[in-house]
User: Which sequence fits this backbone?
């Protein structure tokens, strides 16, 4: 039975309404997952679904991919501002992937459509999804050696994909003729469209049940609530300036490092994220669009402050993100930027929640995860079908230890919330056979709470030729630990040719500039690739770790007995138990000598 | 200090960034004079205040930077 509402809603009513809106977003997400063609949608869940008010402000989103938060806050609002609400007819669907206009990077496409009630726009529904292939210089559209945006794929400013419900065939034909796998793009774009139509129907019904003005007013109050909640949390922080920086290995073009420098200014109930001291824009694709820097800032803040704050545009009032256009934190046309979303964002987000806000909220902070997505792209012709395929693969790594527990192992970077692709799906869809997929033992950063473990994946080429690319980081600089915790381990991307006795890096094989960024290497049948993802940094002094936990780690194979002794000062006997007297003596000695951690 | 129109032909697909925060400027911008007399274009009126707030915090930011240095594992500390 419809519930009539009038006037303003109280806090309970707003909460229930917000949950209802999030449920609509969830239903949109399930539709997209179930109907997409590409595993990056159906398995990876690399997308977001959105409800926006009639000005394009975010009201609700499914809790899927926080990495898209900045784009969710701005992309639709900017489209509406740029093209004008008067150009959104009923049944229109606008699409764009422009990273200079609110997109996070070009593979992520945003669709937005108006929700008409009584012949007027009452709201919008939208989604953002990472398409697996959009053309450009490398299969998978993730070219680690791209030096400008034009090499990264087909860039779309806001254009109509549907006009009054009918496809704009000219735009479709341009898109599909520039993508390497147009059949997949066709399916994925229709999955996005179907998701919009579900959201549109559900939202229209809500408007009809509750009235446009009542619901629109509530949309505003939901945002006001988030704003007030966040301000209350910020007000609890001590005023001041907190500084941190972190450095990328290289940009894939040269071997020089690039540094992000961030000052977080706490000023009453507002926060300013000041990135203006950061390095100039890189030539290679590690740069971030403005919205990615916003995502990194806000996600880092939310992780340490407000687990229950509703996610909507109200969160974007108490904070200001300041970056200089033309720097690594705010890329300018025609700067390459596909890696900003996957490498820059986790790095910066974890810097915010770890080394910067950790200065005042140490119990909320965590050591660094591997914070690379370890993007591995490939494409070619499948000998089993004769069809061209392309795939964008991202890899799990170890998360940092935190105040309450060890870091998670083998998980996608914390900012993205995505899932990996199961081996069974992998081998069914593409011509690879796995030899191993296992935790990378004895590599987690030592600490009172240990860093999680990265993984080792070994797989063999089963086609005559596969073209591969990689875009990762943390190959030279290991993830940091916190409060005395040890560093994690580094990224390795290696190759073993038939007849070779051991793996060597792609860099060594091909004389590449970067150990973690390359494009368009042709592999052949029998070649084996080994991806080793980094492990997370530790949290706290390893000598404070419970010896029983260290012994359990040794029994589980997470830590070797030698490392237990060297890093933790814990001696394990032949039965796998802690040798208590020897351990106490060793730890006392290590504490007095300040031994290796 | 005034809102001014940003005139761009339809075939210009480049974008304009805010001189204060880096955000996108769409159709119009807030124009104001910086302390050295340069005219700045901002995406919102409040960015003029933001500009002055950043200048106010500049010495504290530098102090925090000096205190932290390039260390990636600072100890917990009091606010600067």
Assistant:
């Amino acid at each position: 039975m419809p519930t009539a509402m009038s006037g303003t809603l109280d806090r309970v009513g707003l909460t229930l309404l917000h949950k209802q809106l999030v449920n609509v977003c969830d239903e949109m997400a399930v539709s997209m997952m179930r109907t997409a063609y590409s595993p990056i949608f159906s398995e990876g869940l690399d997308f977001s679904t959105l409800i926006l008010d009639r000005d394009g402000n975010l009201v609700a989103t499914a809790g899927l991919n926080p990495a898209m938060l900045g784009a969710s806050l701005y992309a639709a609002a900017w489209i509406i501002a740029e093209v004008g609400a008067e150009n959104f007819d009923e049944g229109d669907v606008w699409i764009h992937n422009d990273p200079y206009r609110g997109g996070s990077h070009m593979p992520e496409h945003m669709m937005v459509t108006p929700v008409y009630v009584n012949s007027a726009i009452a709201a919008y529904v939208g989604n953002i999804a990472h398409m697996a292939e959009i053309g450009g210089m490398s299969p998978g559209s993730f070219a680690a050696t791209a030096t400008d945006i034009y090499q990264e794929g087909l860039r779309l400013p806001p254009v109509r994909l549907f006009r009054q419900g009918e496809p704009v065939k000219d735009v479709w034909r341009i898109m599909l003729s520039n993508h390497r796998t147009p059949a997949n793009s066709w399916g994925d774009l229709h999955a996005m469209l179907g998701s919009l139509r579900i959201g549109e129907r559900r939202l229209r019904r809500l408007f009809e049940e509750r009235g446009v003005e009542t619901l629109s007013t509530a949309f505003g109050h939901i945002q006001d609530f988030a704003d007030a909640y966040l301000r209350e949390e910020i007000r609890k922080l001590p005023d001041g300036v907190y500084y941190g920086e972190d450095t990328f290995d290289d940009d894939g073009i040269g071997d020089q490092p690039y540094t992000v420098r961030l000052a977080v200014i706490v000023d009453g109930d507002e926060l300013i994220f000041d990135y203006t001291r950061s390095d100039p824009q890189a030539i290679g694709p590690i740069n971030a669009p403005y919205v990615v820097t916003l995502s990194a800032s806000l996600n880092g803040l939310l992780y340490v402050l407000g687990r229950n704050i509703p996610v909507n545009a109200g969160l974007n009032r108490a904070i200001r993100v300041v970056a200089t256009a033309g720097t690594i934190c705010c890329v300018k046309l025609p700067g390459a930027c596909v890696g900003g979303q996957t490498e820059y964002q986790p790095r910066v987000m974890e810097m915010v929640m770890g080394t910067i806000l950790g200065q005042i909220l140490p119990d909320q902070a965590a050591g660094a995860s591997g914070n690379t997505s370890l993007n591995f792209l490939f494409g070619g012709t499948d000998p089993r079908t004769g069809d061209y395929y392309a795939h964008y693969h991202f890899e799990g790594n170890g998360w940092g230890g935190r105040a309450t527990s060890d870091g998670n192992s083998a998980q996608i970077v914390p900012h993205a919330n995505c899932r990996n692709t199961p081996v069974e799906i992998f081998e069914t869809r593409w011509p690879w056979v796995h030899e191993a997929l296992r935790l990378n033992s004895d590599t987690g950063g030592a600490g009172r709470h240990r860093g999680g473990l990265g993984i080792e994946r070994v797989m063999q080429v089963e086609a005559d030729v596969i073209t591969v690319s990689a875009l990762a980081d943390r190959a030279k600089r290991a993830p940091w630990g916190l409060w005395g915790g040890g560093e994690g381990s580094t990224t390795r991307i290696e190759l073993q040719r038939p007849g070779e006795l051991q793996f060597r890096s792609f860099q060594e094989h091909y004389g590449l500039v970067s150990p973690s960024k390359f494009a368009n290497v042709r592999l052949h049948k029998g070649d084996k690739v080994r991806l080793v993802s980094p492990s997370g940094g530790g949290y706290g002094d390893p000598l404070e770790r419970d010896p029983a936990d260290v012994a359990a780690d040794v029994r589980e194979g997470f830590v070797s007995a030698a490392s237990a002794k060297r890093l933790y000062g814990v001696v394990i006997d032949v039965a796998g138990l802690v040798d208590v007297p020897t351990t106490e003596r060793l730890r006392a000695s290590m504490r007095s000598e300040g031994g290796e951690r | 200090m005034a809102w001014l129109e940003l005139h761009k032909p339809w075939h210009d697909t480049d974008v304009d960034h805010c001189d204060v925060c880096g955000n996108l400027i769409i159709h119009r911008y807030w124009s104001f004079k910086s302390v050295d007399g340069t005219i700045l274009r901002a995406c919102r009126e409040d960015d003029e205040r933001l500009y002055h707030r950043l200048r106010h915090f500049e010495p504290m930011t530098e102090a925090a930077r000096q205190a932290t240095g390039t260390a990636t594992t600072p100890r917990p500390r009091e606010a600067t």
